[in-house]
Amino acid sequence: MLRLAIQKSGRLSEDSLALIRECGINFISSTYKLKTEATNFPLEILFLRDDDIPGYVQDGVADLGIVGQNVLVEAGFPNLEVEALGFSKCRLSLAVPRADGYASVASLQGKNIATSYPNILSRYLAEQGVQANLHTISGSVEIAPSIGLAEAICDIVSSGSTLLGNGLREVETVFRSEAVLIAQPNLTAEQADLLEQLRFRMQAVRRAKR
Ligand code: ATP
Ligand code: ZN
Question: Which residues form a coiled coil (predicted)?
Answer without folding.
Answer: none
